[in-house]
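Running this now, will post back.
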Amino acid sequence: MFQVTRRVDYAMRMMIELGQLDPGDSLSAREMSRKTAVPKAFLHKITSDLVKADLVRTFAGVQGGVALAKPAKQISLLHVVEAVEGKFCINSCLIRPQECPRDLICPAHTLWGSLQNTLIGELSRITISELAISARQLKENPQRFPHTPYLSVI
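Update: finished.
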């Protein structure tokens, strides 16, 4: 199944939670874990990746925690995905020209390239700020949107 990894899902939860804070505020690891349902073992590993990508900062001590390293408007979903998973690539044939010996004769190669461009475009367009605003609204008025394409498994 083609799906987002658990690491990306957890990183997104964490970044959306941080995006809802007032500038300069931070969350402790305990509070972050409680609010996002991200297990502490994952939380520390993902936080480390997000720090290396300069998306979050950490503060030690009793008043320590995690905070965004830059405004939420400047952080795209692509930044988050690539911070925890590396460069976005949906198929190894798109790593570089001639990575796959069939790239000049394979119609799927063109399809994968088109899908990758679309996904990168969407992930680049959407910011943590936008998702944080949606998160606040959904906390006030939880709802399932009718256009969400759920996979029905029989």
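The longest helix spans residues 107-125. More later if anyone needs it.
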